[in-house]
Specification:
Strand 3, helix 4 and strand 4 form a beta-alpha-beta unit. Helices cover about 35% and strands about 25% of the residues. It is α/β, with parallel strands linked by helices and about 250 residues long.
C-alpha cells in the first residue's frame, strides 16, 4: 500500500502545477443524476456562510461565489491554496471569498459558524463538520466510489480503493455522520460510462489524480497504459466509468 506521505507529496505537486482543474480534458459521459455544486447552490441562500473542504485550486467554488454571503475554501495542501489564491485574483471575486490552508480534522472556526459545508472528493471529519455547522445547517459531500475507473485499476493491478467492496465507504461515512449527531441523512449514487477523446486526455487524468497511485513511476506502466487504450477504445473514445455517491446531512 502507498504510504500516506506519498499522497501528501502528490497533492502538493499537483496543486502547484494544476490545482484541481480538469477543464482541458476532452471527455464525454452518460448523463449523471446531479452536479455536486449545483446541489450546493440549491441549499445556499445569499445570506449564508459556506465552507468548502478540500477546495483544491478553488475552480469549482469560485463559480458559485455569488450564491453565498461568505465563501471559505480550505485545503491541506499548500500548493493547492497557492493555486486557489491565483485563481481568486484572476476571478475578481475577492470581496466574499477566502482561501486558507487548514486540516479538515482540526477546523479552526467558531462553533456553529457556517450554514453550509461542502466537500467534494476529499477527506473530512464528521464531528468537526458538525461542530462548525449552525443549527439546521446542511453538509453535502460527494465521494469517489470504490468501483470508479474499475477497468483502469484492474489493468494496472493497483488503484484507489481497489479490492474494497462497493458501498463500504458510503456506509462508513453514514455511520460517522450519525455518530457525530446528524439526524437527517440522504444518499444518492451513480455509475455511468465515460469516454476520453484521446490517450492524452486519459494520461492527464491519471497523472493528476491518485486513481493509480505512483502512476508512471513503475517501469511497466507505459506498456500497460498503451494496451489499455487499445483494449478499450471505440468510436466514442477510450471507455471507462465514473462512479460517485453523494450524502446530504442536516444538523
Amino acid at each position: 500500500m502507498t504510504k500516506q506521505w506519498d499522497y501528501n507529496t502528490f497533492y502538493e505537486r499537483v496543486g502547484q502545477q494544476n490545482g484541481w482543474d480538469f477543464s482541458t480534458m476532452k471527455v464525454i459521459s452518460e448523463p449523471t443524476d446531479w452536479d455536486f455544486y449545483d446541489e450546493v447552490t440549491r441549499c445556499t441562500q445569499t445570506s449564508d456562510l459556506l465552507l468548502d473542504i478540500g477546495t483544491g485550486g478553488g475552480e469549482a467554488v469560485l463559480a458559485i461565489a455569488e450564491h453565498a454571503h461568505l465563501l471559505v475554501g480550505i485545503d491541506l495542501a499548500h500548493g493547492m491554496i497557492e493555486t486557489a489564491q491565483r485563481n481568486l485574483k484572476r476571478s475578481k471575486k475577492c470581496s466574499n471569498v477566502r482561501f486558507t490552508q487548514m486540516d479538515a480534522d482540526n477546523l479552526q472556526f467558531p462553533k456553529s459558524f457556517f450554514n453550509i459545508v461542502s466537500c467534494r472528493h476529499s477527506a473530512f471529519s464528521a464531528s468537526e463538520v458538525y461542530n462548525v455547522l449552525a443549527e439546521d445547517g446542511v453538509f453535502l459531500t460527494q465521494q469517489v466510489s470504490e468501483h470508479d475507473k474499475l477497468n483502469v485499476k484492474q489493468a494496472f493491478g493497483r488503484g484507489q480503493h481497489l479490492g474494497i467492496e462497493p458501498g463500504t465507504l458510503l456506509e462508513k461515512y453514514k455511520q460517522e455522520l450519525q455518530h457525530a449527531g446528524f439526524q437527517h441523512i440522504e444518499v444518492r449514487e451513480y455509475n455511468v460510462t465515460e469516454y476520453y477523446a484521446t490517450p492524452e486526455d486519459l494520461l492527464f487524468l491519471l497523472t493528476h489524480t491518485p486513481i493509480v497511485p505512483q502512476f508512471g513511476e513503475i517501469a511497466s506502466d507505459l506498456g500497460v497504459f498503451e494496451q489499455f487504450v487499445l483494449d478499450h477504445r471505440d468510436e466514442k473514445g477510450i471507455r471507462t466509468n465514473s462512479a460517485r455517491f453523494m450524502i446530504t446531512a442536516r444538523k
